[in-house]
Design a protein that fits this description.
With 438 residues, the chain is of the alpha+beta class. The chain is built from 15 helices and eleven strands.
Amino acid sequence: MRRTIAAAIALGGLLGAQAFAYPLDGWEETQIHRLKAYDMAKEPLLKRGTLKPGSLWSVDQIRLRLLDHPDFQVPPPDPTFTNVIKSYLGPDAAHYGIAVLDISDPSSPRYAEIRGTMIQNPGSVGKIVVALAIFQALADVYPDDIAARQRVLLETEVTANEFIRTDHHVVPLWSPGDPRVAKRPIQEGDQANLWTFLDWMASASSNAGAAMVMSQLVLLKHFGADYPVSEKEAKRYFEKTPKSELQATFLAAIVEPLGRSGLNSEHLRQGSFFTREGKKRVPGTNSLATARELMRFMLKMEQGKLVDEWSSLQIKRLLYLTDRRIRYASHPALNDSAVYFKSGSLYSCQPEPGFECEKYHGNRVNFMNSVATVEYEGEGQSLHYIAVVLSNVLRKNSAVEHQTLAARIHRLVQSMNPAVVHEPIDAPPENASGAGGS
């Protein structure tokens, strides 16, 4: 069976264009089915190039890097560091918001920022805010009981319903014993535990997955320790509760956790559901982000300050790439690095002579947003940096632009942290002896 699954995954063209997350050996504690399938097939996937060496870190290798630096703050921008990155952008610099923090040596950090307060719709990057909200809601109900939080994530069975309408993103579907991993959009009636829906939201960037997580967030906020409730009770709650009350509960659940973790909801906010039906059933508000506040989000994660240390670590694991890499994360320069990543795009076109509208090439709006923490250990070099890139460069392939920028930033950080060269140890003199002789 192991060989059958491995061959099916590696040779059957089943992996699509999504970027899947969470460490592969996290199967036991999460029961996210696709982790076990990919773990079984990791050797052929690595050979094929779908998996990268940096995608194979274990759960135990993923840690919060700044727990010993609770007072660390983003330093003022370094002019030289900033100007070098700005030079990569050329005449398009005015259409970017960028923040890059090199904390390879936390005692001597370097920070670059270009239009760090530029406000832009975060697109799917806003799903990291949904993850924060779920973990805050769990902590509120079980403040001193992490085992109970784990139990809710593991044992809560979620059934996809009307909230998913409508989404084109495909997700991996596999059960032990299946000969292959299926890839299709979530359909009404699909069932999985809450961990799996979080994975579908964060990794495959499924809007349907996000909508179901957000609906569960509202239920968790309202019912507290009585959550999970039956499908019948959940349906009654959403249908009978006034929309103004649903909106208040939703916004309290998704916006307030930002401030409680020390973030500014006027600079980073996910204010609405990711599906049309979700917005219709539960009204919200607008969504926005800046490069600077996204940087602070990722930094607080490393410090264990997103809710608490356990929650921060779970969010980091959800962002860890363990499948095909896309956009900013896809450049071969990052192949050997662990990458914790979320991206989002929004583009639209308007009539223009000689212009043909293509994906990520919008001439009206062409938002592309990337958030990435990069870790590398090897060849005498240890790298740890965070990069946030927001762009709205019209008529260019923004996915390629971000990919190219990722390689340049990575090589720049490498150059600022040269590998340690260990001098060879000379053999002791022929007649040398320990102190005191023999």
